[in-house]
Amino acid sequence: MDKYKQYERVFNHLDENGDMKISPCELQKCVGSLGWEMSIEEAEVAVTLMDSDGDGLLCFEDFVKLVEGAGEEEKANDLKQAFAMYEMEGSGCITPKSLKRMLSRLGESKTLEECELMIAHYDINGDGQLNFDEFKVMMSS
User: Which pTM was predicted?
Assistant: First the structure.
């Protein structure tokens, strides 16, 4: 089953009254059924942000954007956590030394020179380090 069919099944399940729209109340119940907490105010804000036609409800297309947006946010958070693991003591960048240290912890031994070459491949601004944007490029290739 493709993901849009899955989204449609979930959407139809959440749409308790069958009006082909998800209200803030329905969204709040859905989130609660997943074991998370969302106040009615938070649900209203989420619906307002994603509501494409201004009726205060989520149509199917709005719901898909909400779900996929949450996935993108999760990916961004995962990348930030991964970056922090390699980053050198809050410096905001990955240095050859910090890369070598982290790879060593992961059981992959590299020389400092090898780490410099690895970084140089994605070092867009040429400063010999990877900032978060360069790290994102590296992780997406």
Answer: 0.52
